[in-house]
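pasting for the record
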Amino acid sequence: MKRIGYFDCQSGISGDMVLGALLDAGFDITELNEGLSRLRIGGFDLKAERVTRHGISGTSVEVVLDPATPQEFRHLSDMEAILRESDLNEGIKEKSLKILQRLAYAEAKVHGIPVEHVHFHEIGAVDTIVDVVGSVLGINAMGIEEIYASKLHVGTGTVKCAHGVLPVPAPATLELLKGVPIYSTGIQGELVTPTGAAIITTLARAFGEFPPMTVERTGYGAGKRELEIPNLLRVCIGGSAQESVDRNESPGNEVVVECNIDDMNPEIYGHVMDLLFEKGALDVFLTPVIMKKQRPGTILTVITQNEILDEIIKIVFMETTTLGVRIHQVKREKANRELISVKTRFGEVRVKVARFKDMVTNIAPEYEDCRRLAKTHGVPLKVIYDEARRHISAE
């Protein structure tokens, strides 16, 4: 079952609200701090606290800067260097870079200067880097594979920033929101910040009503101001309801696209796989083979649905060195799957249970849950796996 996250932006969205919502939904702050330490920038502490907004509880996050540490404006190249030189995994780096790059290009366009000349007064600050990277870390830790969002409530009036008094939405924010449904109810002030806009427009697949899903967790990230409405960003996390029906769903609607490659830089494969999954591929995998003239090569295989076949093929041609692809229709038999939460002595673990013709065929604890608990308690990962399996078997 694909795990999805839905951001309900009735009070707008900002970087700290995204981070607060994920922490409120269960993202471990110890894991967050450990991930941020890999940036090696220092000079700040992260403060997270419970607050209420119109009687609804949420988590407020604040980056507290060390007054003894000089704070500098940074260009895009500086932020790229921080991420590239960090110990974060490549997926976290790439998603964070995409967000920061979108932010940079939006600022460059509205101010009419080359992107390399943009020095971001707000964006270059430590708190924005923390908000962006922390949000990506949280999405990854919570196992969210696809992100959706509501229409964005942007506010109205003006906002004071480093460039002076600007209309709401701020020019860079509005640039980022092109093609995204927005609205205002007359609430004064900036509800969608440039950082919030960059995060959600980079990561969300679509904007609108709730997608078909089974909600398992919710979290509320609190904004700093009191508004006429609860100043909270809500995230809902759960499984896609479209994937939990039965093994005969969408018969004949899936295709396999594959190609042989023997002349491409191996570093590119991970990037291509990320793009294909983001576009909606059901599965992507690589198979080593020996090709003509005894040259080692790789078969790239993509399982996808007919509706996005053209977009998948376009990615393969644009991003790899292949000159042709093979396409054939397939029919899959799938076991019914459900996600069950079990309470172990280390904490709560989600377990995926597969059934075929009323028989349990597989029990698989969620990797990210087990990894988080293993790091928190300082025990081997396999111990958490075994504990989760024992609990589900007992039930």
